[in-house]
Specification:
Mean pLDDT: 89
Distance between the termini: 37 Å
Pfam family, one: PTAC
Catalytic activity: propanoyl-CoA + phosphate = propanoyl phosphate + CoA
Strand content: 35-45%
GO molecular function: acyltransferase activity, transferring groups other than amino-acyl groups; metal ion binding
Shape: elongated
Number of helices: 5
Structural class: alpha/beta
Helix content: 10-25%
Largest sheet: 6 strands, mixed, barrel
InterPro entries: PTAC (IPR008300)
Pathway: Polyol metabolism; 1,2-propanediol degradation
Length: 214
């Protein structure tokens, strides 16, 4: 076999081996944000929990115009077990929402589904207690689905689009790959993947960078 034929045959065999494998650019790294349990509240529920006319006090600016408020509430599940000091995030929303981890759900006795933020129809019930009152949500408690925030410029650089689903690999900690990771693109977003505390602890993730796999 001539040298050129040999090179072509090797290239063909390598290409066959690579079919179906996860290929990625080692420079396609995504910063990670670990989200702890938190709640979003409507104006009505803010007033029930904290008093008539009460306004949330901004503690820390977050992505997309959101902020961590100084205020916290207590979550009460169906087993009447409670988790205290759960941070409220502002600004106020049209529907109140509680985001917890699977570990939290087990402790509270809440059958919370894994959902993206805002997807609340048919989600789990839960009660919230504040200094001035208690709110019972017939639905609104979810386990936040991992996802990636990107600006349009980020999406263009990575060659992805809004709602596209990708994988993200981690090489530090215990190592591993998260599958089924949707991308959310908006002008107000900066590049960051959001996972919860259970996911971070499972792979030993602290302030790591994930590798995007298309």
């Amino acid at each position: 076999m001539q040298q050129e034929q040999l090179v072509n045959e090797i290239a063909r065999l390598v290409a066959e081996q690579l079919k179906g494998m996860d290929l990625y650019n080692p420079n396609d790294r995504i910063p990670i944000g670990v989200s702890a349990r938190h709640v979003h509240l409507t104006r009505e529920d803010v007033e029930i929990l904290f008093g008539k006319g009460y306004q949330l006090h901004k503690k820390k600016e977050l992505m997309g115009g959101q902020y961590a408020a100084q205020e916290c509430v207590t979550l009460i599940g169906t087993k009447l077990r409670a988790i205290e000091n759960v941070r409220v995030l502002g600004p106020e929303r049209s529907r109140s929402q509680v985001e917890i981890s699977k570990t939290d759900a087990i402790k509270l006795g809440v059958n919370a589904p894994v959902r993206l933020s805002g997807d609340l129809d048919g989600s789990a019930p839960i009660a919230l207690a504040g200094p001035q009152g208690v709110v019972y949500l017939k639905e609104g408690c979810i386990i936040a689905k991992r996802h990636i925030h990107m600006s349009p410029a980020d999406a263009k650089r990575f060659g992805v689009e809004d709602k596209q689903v990708v994988k993200v690999r981690f090489e530090s900690g215990r190592g591993g790959t998260f599958e089924d990771v949707p991308i959310r693109v908006d002008d107000s977003f900066s590049l960051e993947m959001h996972i919860d505390t259970d996911e971070a602890n499972g792979l030993g993730i602290t302030k790591d960078m994930g590798i995007l796999i298309k």
